[in-house]
From TrEMBL:
Pfam families: I-set, ig. Keywords: Disulfide bond, Glycoprotein, Immunoglobulin domain, Membrane, Transmembrane, Transmembrane helix. It comes from the Eukaryota. One of its GO terms (biological process) is cell-cell adhesion. Residues 20-87, 96-173 form the Ig-like domain. It is found in: Membrane. This is TMIG1 protein. One of its GO terms (cellular component) is plasma membrane. It is a single-pass type I membrane protein.
Amino acid sequence: GLELSVNNHAADFSLSTLPGPSVSLSCQVQNISQAEELLWYRGDGKVDLKDGNKVNVSNICVSPVTESDNGVTFTCRLARDQSVQVSVILDVQFPPQLTGEESLQVEEDKDVTMSCNAKSNPQAQTAWYKNNTTLTLQENRYQLYQTSEVFQLSIRKVQKSDNGTYTCMVKSSLGEGRKDFHLIVKDKKPVFPKEAVIAAVVVVTLTVLFGIVARKDKIFKVW
């Protein structure tokens, strides 16, 4: 004779929504023998309910709904037996939010990584372009890394031919976003052998010392 439901769902369910509008959740219990107190939880945290919003029927409102609410679970439980419960998972859908540009200066033969951070729901697909043309990946030089929120392109030992604008394009069914990376490959700095530098310092030091020794008689005469 006891039945618990949230928004007329007697079992756990997912509720799709968009950012902005509020979402109302209504928990009801039907018990022909007695009044029942209800509890609400957001994740593991208990929601404070006002008096008059706890017995047999309890309503909560998520306002405004934001992207951070995606995946959050709200659970209504029976106070005297918390094993009796119904949960709802918020499925907040939003397009990729990716804009802007970045300039990178790298020496020849150095490695470089370009990273796009783009959340979206549903998950987006990504593509890389160079100078507005689909990027052709060279084996052993280009490496792609992708998670649900991070899209990276790495280039090993950059060359002058790698100069250009790289674009990270992220698309989902709700929209798209892009970010440009302006890569400038600089000339490689000359590297001086450490041994040659040490040898030069030693030669200069000895030359100065020999010069002082050779002129010590004149120096003493002056003093």
